[in-house]
């Protein structure tokens, strides 16, 4: 099936984090692709990826990066496809650098920024699913079912001593 969501990241070292976005999309049955696209190591590839995204049918891009994390902002600047940014937890500054680099976009080019690390990656996928759900009822249904299961899991495991 043609991918509807593109998951990109600045480095293979981001995969530990970004794999959680891919897992969540897989769980919801949403076709997606995964690719390393570095803003500073492969800038031409970044431009090409962003310029082609809409024509290839991508309806959202989840972009993860760490440190001076300009990948999500640069991609957003080159495509009208909505971009969700995931700050990867960096070693030096624990991801605060990534977070501020991604979230502080000047007015005009938005990047929907999620939390640092795994939570951000999972939530980027869930948010992308919610966006797709406006157009594809099957993905809205899958998201609702996921949330119901999540609630059920908490309700049936309420005593932490029994975990
Ligand atoms: C960023 O630099 C990447 O997104 C990654 O989080 C960080 C470090 O990259 P590596 O040096 O591990 O390749 O571009």
From TrEMBL:
One of its GO terms (biological process) is 'de novo' IMP biosynthetic process. Pathway: Purine metabolism; IMP biosynthesis via de novo pathway; 5-amino-1-(5-phospho-D-ribosyl)imidazole-4-carboxylate from 5-amino-1-(5-phospho-D-ribosyl)imidazole (N5-CAIR route): step 2/2. It is an enzyme of class 5 (isomerase). It holds the Pfam family AIRC. SUPFAM superfamilies: N5-CAIR mutase (phosphoribosylaminoimidazole carboxylase, PurE). GO terms for molecular function: 5-(carboxyamino)imidazole ribonucleotide mutase activity. Keywords: Isomerase, Purine biosynthesis. It catalyses: 5-carboxyamino-1-(5-phospho-D-ribosyl)imidazole + H(+) = 5-amino-1-(5-phospho-D-ribosyl)imidazole-4-carboxylate. Substrate binds at residues 11, 14, 41. Its EC number is 5.4.99.18. Residues 3-154 form the PurE domain. Belongs to the AIR carboxylase family. Class I subfamily. Catalyzes the conversion of N5-carboxyaminoimidazole ribonucleotide (N5-CAIR) to 4-carboxy-5-aminoimidazole ribonucleotide (CAIR). This is N5-carboxyaminoimidazole ribonucleotide mutase. It comes from Simiduia aestuariiviva.
């Amino acid at each position: 099936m043609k991918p509807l969501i593109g998951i990109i990241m600045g480095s293979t070292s981001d995969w530990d984090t970004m794999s959680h976005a891919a897992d969540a999309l897989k769980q919801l049955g949403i076709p997606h692709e995964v690719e390393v696209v570095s803003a500073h190591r492969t800038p031409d590839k970044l431009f090409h990826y962003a310029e082609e995204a809409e024509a290839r049918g991508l309806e959202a891009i989840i972009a993860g990066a760490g440190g001076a994390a300009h990948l999500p902002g640069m991609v957003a600047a080159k495509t009208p496809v909505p971009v969700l940014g995931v700050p990867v937890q960096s070693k030096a500054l624990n991801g605060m650098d990534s977070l501020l680099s991604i979230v502080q976009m000047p007015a005009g080019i938005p990047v929907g920024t999620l939390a640092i690390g795994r939570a951000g990656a999972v939530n980027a996928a869930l948010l992308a699913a919610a966006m797709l759900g406006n157009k594809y009822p099957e993905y809205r249904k899958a998201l609702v079912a996921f949330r119901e299961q999540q609630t059920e899991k908490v309700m049936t495991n309420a005593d932490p001593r029994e975990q």
